[in-house]
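Continuing from the previous page...

OK, I double-checked the sequence for Xyloglucan endotransglucosylase/hydrolase against my notes and this is the correct one:
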Amino acid sequence: MEYGIHSRTLFFFFFFFSLLYTTTAFNLTTLRFDEAYSPLFSDFNIQRSPDDKTVRLLLNRFSGSGIISSDYYNYGFFSASIKLPAEYTAGIVVAFYTSNVDTFERNHDELDIEFMGNVKGKPWRFQTNMYGNGSTSRGREERYRLWFDPSKDSHRYSILWTPKNTIFYVDEVPIREIVRNTAMGGDYPSKPMSLYATIWDASTWATNGGKVKVDYKYEPFVSEFKDLVLEGCIVDPIEQISSTNCTDRIATLLAKEYSTITPEGRKSMKWFREKYIYYSSCYDNIRYPVPPPECVVVPSEREMFQNSGRLREKLKFGGSNRRHRRGRRSRQPRKVAATGRPRSCYVKWPRKCCMCNMYN
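Thanks. Re-ran it with the corrected sequence; updated structure tokens here:
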């Protein structure tokens, strides 16, 4: 028995490291904060390193904080090495996402990576999502755990967005791909978007359905962003006039190593999804009796899920399977509520925050 357990342990150890070994690092050009970003809200909770290559976003009892890319991009690769808060993280959400909600309020596009804190002693969870043309009621969520502690060290999280596909990466491991097809119509993001990074108080819903709140005894909560990457064609969001030839820039983007998943990358993605995913809208037959048109049903994944899109076996960590959407923001400084969310968030969704359009 001991030999069998030891053998299985060694097998998974070598299998895991073989996956990492076959996944080569991307050749990326990083930027300083002042080259590509601006404060979004709560400047007093944004700390920039002396060389301007690292930015720390703080959440305390006064506010959260956020940054935004200085430009809009017509497709691109958006990436950062992120280290999440440690110790007590219940009620906290850290988000790294693209959006154009401020310019296209009723038909905005969005691609999300959102990290959700947990009760003490439980791991961070995160989700990816896609909205196109204002299709927030048809969000395409997936939710996962991680194979490492994201509060111990920085790890790279990336969003590739092209006219053909969208790929989410953790380090250089592809965890999700959405391939565009004609049946998706406007649900596939296609308008210029900005890149955001934020940390905020989501006590009303984020942990166990809002039962566990942010405990400011542990403030400040710090999320660190470095190795900032913004690659794409800069455009005017309204006129959609580019500062360069977008045809050439998009062709260059499509030729990059991260725009195509290699056979080795497919193996890594299969390993990740079968081990760490715990919800997928593609297998949620209650919300979607007919799966969304971009879904590719994988038999080995299908067996994992109930008709609700959640795992058949209850996982060992707690938390809510809810999601939210964000409200508008302006390029101009705005007043924010004590949580760090713009006060205008409460206009569109009376009696609830615009970032908290919930469902179970």
